[in-house]
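>> received
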Amino acid sequence: MGKKSNHGTSTPERQAARRVMKEREIDPSYGMGQNFMTDATVASWIVDQLEVRPGDTVMEIGPGMGALTEHLVKKGARRVILVEKDDKLVEVVREKYGQLPGVTILHADAVRLDMRPYFKEQPLKMLGALPYSCGTEIIRNCLKNPSPVQRAVFTLQKEVCLKLSAQPGDSLYGLLSLRQQSRWRVEFLRQLPPDIFVPRPAVDSGVIAMEPRPRPELPVFDEAVLDRVLASGFSQRRKMLRNLLPPHPAMPWEEMAAALGVLVTARAQELTLRQWVELANIYDSHALKGNPQRGEEIFDVVNDRNEVIRQEMRRVVHVEGLWHRAVHLFVR
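>> returned
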């Protein structure tokens, strides 16, 4: 007979969580998908997956009652930023962690958080047991290109984790998978049972890790064009792509399929990420689409006083993370 799980028993962590909820009159919102982790061993393991190093800035989304935060603040990060939306929970966070050196608390909604100021905080890593109701919206906002985040570890519904990490042939492979994987490598790390949360959710949870996809892995592409092509291709999963994609002004579907190496009867879920990028480039009508930034371009490499110390090729600068002179324009 297998060993019975003790996750559902009244552990000290669960008792403490319920006590705080009662004292602060915190009523977890079903609409916001609030479920608080109570297993300290699991929480410690999740924080370990972030691979925090001295000098890192770590942003935790939705610290809640501090299940992950308790372990995070002991990891030696240069700075910890705790982003909490809930009015009552942010007070709990302030009381527990607001006086610690290097800890900043933001009373803010991560769905609308402006990530641009955090480029100067790099290396930046992100952590969060995200609300079930808006987890994908938080990821979409915080990790949209360009993002300052260099590694992220999230807890979400298991099904969403599997969608984000799905590969061709998986039943959950689709629009969400490709939109995120076009810029991020996504790895499913483990499944979490409902019994380690208060209140107990109706579904299993999962943990994923995300890191920026190195640009050389894919051809240069226009994200807006890729998004439009994906939306058309996945609008009806059971239909063949030739019946869903808009007509191309110069290339019939049969030629496009041959160029991609797929059957003319192919459906959206049968194409790999690279094939989708190649398809987007076929549809891209921009006159300069075939002229990406060259890896051989020479950059000035600088020190922390902005003094030029040598020159390197673009590809070397980005692979090695070297400081260099550049101007970035954010247009909204």
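>> Confidence is low (pLDDT under 50) at residues 1-8.
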